[in-house]
Amino acid sequence: MLEGAELYFNVDHGYLEGLVRGCKAGLLTERDYVNLVQCETLEDLKIHLQTTDYGNFLANQTNPLTVSKIDTEMRKKLCSEFEYFRNHSLEPLSTFFTYMTCSYMIDNVILLMNGALQKKSVKEILVKCHPLGRFTEMEAVNIAETPSDLFNAVLIETPLAPFFQDCMSENILDELNIELLRNKLYKSYLEAFYKFCKNHGDVTAEIMCPILEFEADRRAFIITLNSFGTELSKEDRETLFPTCGKLHPEGLRLLAQAEDFEQMKRVAEHYGVYKPLFEAVGDGSGGKTLEDVFYEHEVQMNVLAFNRQFHYGVFYAYTKLKEQEMRNIVWIAECISQRHRTKINNYIPIL
Amino acid sequence: MKMGQTYPAPAWDLPHRHGGHLPCQDCSLSAFRNTTVPSSLTPRSMDLRPCRTMGSMFRSEEVALVQLFLPTAAAYTCVSQLGELGLVEFRDLNASVSAFQRRFVMDVRRCEELEKTFTFLQEEVWRAGLALSPPEGALPAPPPRDLLRIQEETDRLAQELRDVRGNQQTLRAQLHQLQLHEAVLGQGHCPPLVATDTDGSSERTPLLQDPRGPHQDLRVNFVAGAVEPHKAAALERLLWRACRGFLIASFRETEQPLQDPVTGEPATWMTFLISYWGEQIGQKILKITNCFHCHVFPFEEQEEARHAALQQLQQQSHELLEVLGETERFLSQVLGRVQRLLPPWQVQIHKMKAVYLALNQCSVSATHKCLIAEAWCAARDLPALQQALQDSSSEAGVSAVVHRIPCRDMPPTLVRTNRFTASFQGIVDAYGVGRYQEVNPAPYTVVTFPFLFAVMFGDVGHGLLMFLFALAMVLAENRPAVKAAQNEIWRTFFGGRYLLLLMGLFSVYTGFIYNECFSRATVIFRSGWNVSAMVDQSGWSDEFLAQHPLLTLDPNVSGVFRGPYPFGIDPVWSLAVNHLSFLNSFKMKMSVILGVTHMAFGVVLGVFNHLHFRQPYRLLLETLPELVFLLGLFGYLVFLVFYKWLCYTPASAASAPSILIHFINMFLFSQSPTNRPLFTGQELVQSALVVLALAMVPVLLLGTPLFLFRQHRRRSRKRPTGRQLDEDQTGLLDSSNASEAAWGSDEEKAGCPGPEEEAEFVPSEVFMHQAIHTIEFCLGCISNTASYLRLWALSLAHAQLSEVLWAMVMRTGLRMGNKIGVMAVVLVPIFAAFAVLTVAILLVMEGLSAFLHALRLHWVEFQNKFYSGTGYKLSPFSFAVEE
């Protein structure tokens, strides 16, 4: 990128940036959450959401309203917004958007493969797929027997193809292998995305790299946490860690050796960013989970992304914030529908 | 309740005349406040006429805050009646209650449910290509019990429609399926041909040509089907990749487009025929075709079997078509019923929902027997309001009660307009809706706006065209076709037709003053200049005349100048070469004179504001200094212009002094020896004026704040000692205008005499405000006067443009040839060009630019002298559709 990209950023992407900032202003505020939490039924929730930017997105839903209906409609709304952005974008922003969809595509592919493994019908699983990660060949995933099959026949034309370079093996696809495949895909995806942002330079790199670094490290932590007590060997574990984070390389090596949560925490203590996060995690009885803490940190980074102008990070941040908001609404809606009000306030506030 | 005894209510005295039973707190004070409602008029007849008196234009009407006690049983009918009349604007008394905790939320929700069904019905009607006609006649909001009936009927209708629709869809889907199958079989007539077509040179060709030949064991199987065209390429590639050439696929577009079963739109499909070897490949192909949502059909290998199947299919689809036709007939019957019933329902339910939303803004009385609403209502409409409430609550036995309450909030602004004044009020409102009861510039705008426009647009011909265009619109305004036109640009012009009418008329007038008609001068009266007298007396020889193309007419020679032209500019000037410099001098001076007059008028209008808001000190501390400053400096300039015009004759013209130099010297307190004084003692007068004007600046800067500060101090000193007595007095003296003075203006809020306002006095804020105002006014006087020179510039531009157009187009055309025939032929396109350019450039473009500048002169130069425009409009709760 040339110096002074701010000068002509607006020529190509000014409209979309303006639009996304407008959309961001439509995120639910603290007051909205206070009102949502007070709702007695899902109908109340719907009425309240009508007064926000969601409008009457539930107007055509037949009664009774369920949480999954709300979830689907919200996803549809996000998806249509995203599609709009994407259809109006120019290079290299459109590549950036493609990278953004890749993570959802990976999830969808894995979901379908798991479904095929458990002999579920494709239709049943398609409903669960994230609309942002849809692609035409998606449903053909279940004809593949091995990863190379999958790559050669189905995914070679999709943006996912480059990420398969590292995970071509002739293994039979069983549950463990699929999980390994997911993590490997994700690893190469994150690294590719990171490289893209880094090469792009400018404010985009300044904003996106920390976010992606955090994402990579979060995955490393989560993989470590989930591999405790499984048959995954430590060497295998290390191959799954994305290497674009702050933990690379020392932290990752230590993490690969970690055997319980305490050891993991000790690794994190070497890093100024993660130390406070691990300290905020409560012990089993109360307090926040590690996941929530990570989410909160992510929200914070995404909100901060809006402080700079002339970069692509706002699109990423907006999508992530919107997703968090949807998780919050779903959480509140679940609490309401299950009459489980004690935990209703455990949503992640968006600042 | 806000009815403290310190605010003796400016209560509504009408109840007494009508023998009503309204609570009225203080009758002694009420008498002098409400003189605007003549009791002789019956309530109903007066409020429906839009503009009864022009008096209401000068300032916005008195608007009262009223409390409505609506008995629970009659609340709905009352509010619905109010919606029909559009008299009041409800205030939200439940602002703190969220939308879903309000009283009538259930009813609103039911209305919304119904509207959802309506939307479904409406979309179905539209999809069938039918239109919904707007309902006719008056449709009041239905009584609440009707909601159930409408709901039932709607649901039944919707269910019926859904069933028929569903039937139609399934039938269509079946038909679609059959047609696709037919297309696939039709395509399958010639598989060998396909093979040779696709890869004739390949080694696989013999396999296909002779499937039962030497490779009997390698049986060729077929999969045939159809896929949407945009997926075909991807499908073909995927098939090839997944099966690695163990198949041959041929794709072909259907010959005729098929009707899509859901949308009903025609779309072509791709049919495909895949021939393959081997069982496994077959399974894979099936999976792949499945995931692309292809329709796969059985494909007979024998030609005859295919023929038989095809015929069977054709017969089936014939039968299906008949059934489908029957279904569609029934569907159109149902849709016809929907078309008839839906529009009135939509209007009714819409009204009903609006009523419930309005009721949601009311609070419930302690006894739950009635709803209490607060609303703004024009004082003049109060009798009508009460009448309406009585009428609609009489059924319930308990009558609804209206009761005027005092308030400290600024009431909304209501200026009633008719179709003539609406566009002028629109110009003012576009700048800002006036503060409650401040002087409304609109009535003056009626005259000044077209006038200032015309000064910049002065041309008889152009003005006449504009006038005629506007006149045509005015005469045709009642025609339904004109009213119903939807074009946005047309609506803009149509909305301002009376404005255009006056602008055209005034342009004709200024056109006569400038003596220009399509840039040509008219000779209506005899010119004041006599050339022959000049020739007679100057003794010009023939030789002299031949050598000098330009001759000077000297007004000092007797008989040459016989006195001014009776009206406007003398036509002889259009022949003169110094025409432009003469006009420039004239127009420049005229602009300054008009500007200073206009601004001074603005300052004077401020007087009415101060008088109305009971702030007499501002007359002395603001209006007077402002007037002295403006008139002392620029008024004096105007005086000089007039003085020079009147006192210098052609004879003394050579020795006439320059006003400009004088005016500059005035500020420098100096005198230039070459510039003779205009009148004796001029220097003294000038110095006095400058000193006076400059002395006004500190008065303007400090006067009001110091006065308010002193008033505040005096009151706060008095307060602790004689509280009891003082309260009575201030109550009586001040509170009568407390409600008005309270929102008098920003700085006034601080100095308002109301006891509770005392705490709000912030001296720094008042000083700051006044400082800004002073600087703005003093600098504005200079820059605004200069700004009025745009009148000169624009009128010059207009005159020159039309002159150029005449010279470059029409005159060249007229000079083309001397023969009548040639002229006639040439002049047709020339005149067409002239006419088009006149309308496009001079009328539309120049007109818009002059309009814009006139608008600016009003908003910036005129209105900032007195108009704050910080109010908000009264928007009554009304069912009437905005035009």
From TrEMBL, chain A:
Keyword hit for Nucleotidyltransferase: no
Pfam families noted in UniProt: vATP-synt_AC39 (PF01992)
InterPro entries given in the database record: ATPase_csu/dsu_sf (IPR036079), ATPase_V0-cplx_csu/dsu (IPR002843), ATPase_V0-cplx_dsu (IPR016727), V-type_ATPase_csu/dsu (IPR035067), V-type_ATPase_csu/dsu_dom_3 (IPR044911)
Gene3D superfamilies, A to Z: ATP synthase (C/AC39) subunit, domain 3 (1.10.132.50), V-type ATP synthase subunit C domain (1.20.1690.10)
Sorted UniProt keywords: Hydrogen ion transport, Ion transport, Transport
One MF term in the entry's GO annotations: proton-transporting ATPase activity, rotational mechanism
GO cellular component: apical plasma membrane; endosome; proton-transporting V-type ATPase, V0 domain; vacuolar proton-transporting V-type ATPase complex
Quaternary structure annotation from Swiss-Prot or TrEMBL: V-ATPase is a heteromultimeric enzyme made up of two complexes: the ATP-hydrolytic V1 complex and the proton translocation V0 complex. The V1 complex consists of three catalytic AB heterodimers that form a heterohexamer, three peripheral stalks each consisting of EG heterodimers, one central rotor including subunits D and F, and the regulatory subunits C and H. The proton translocation complex V0 consists of the proton transport subunit a, a ring of proteolipid subunits c9c'', rotary subunit d, subunits e and f, and the accessory subunits ATP6AP1/Ac45 and ATP6AP2/PRR.
Function: Subunit of the V0 complex of vacuolar(H+)-ATPase (V-ATPase), a multisubunit enzyme composed of a peripheral complex (V1) that hydrolyzes ATP and a membrane integral complex (V0) that translocates protons. V-ATPase is responsible for acidifying and maintaining the pH of intracellular compartments and in some cell types, is targeted to the plasma membrane, where it is responsible for acidifying the extracellular environment. May play a role in coupling of proton transport and ATP hydrolysis. Regulator of osteoclast fusion and bone formation.
Family: Belongs to the V-ATPase V0D/AC39 subunit family.
PANTHER family, per database record: VACUOLAR ATP SYNTHASE SUBUNIT AC39
Record-given protein name: V-type proton ATPase subunit
From TrEMBL, chain B:
Transmembrane segments: 451-476, 497-514, 590-608, 628-646, 684-709, 820-845
Places the protein is found: Membrane
Cellular component, GO, one term: vacuolar proton-transporting V-type ATPase, V0 domain
Gene Ontology MF term list: ATPase binding; proton-transporting ATPase activity, rotational mechanism
Alphabetical UniProt keywords: Hydrogen ion transport, Ion transport, Membrane, Transmembrane, Transmembrane helix, Transport
Primary residence: membrane
Cross-referenced InterPro entries: V-ATPase_116kDa_su (IPR002490), V-type_ATPase_116kDa_su_euka (IPR026028)
An individual GO BP term: autophagosome assembly
Membrane topology (UniProt): Multi-pass membrane protein
Keyword Transport belongs to the record: yes
Family named by the database record: Belongs to the V-ATPase 116 kDa subunit family.
Protein task: Essential component of the vacuolar proton pump (V-ATPase), a multimeric enzyme that catalyzes the translocation of protons across the membranes. Required for assembly and activity of the V-ATPase.
PANTHER family cross-referenced by the UniProt entry: V-TYPE PROTON ATPASE 116 KDA SUBUNIT A 3, VACUOLAR PROTON ATPASES
Protein name (Swiss-Prot/TrEMBL): V-type proton ATPase subunit a
Organism listed in the record: Equus asinus (Donkey)
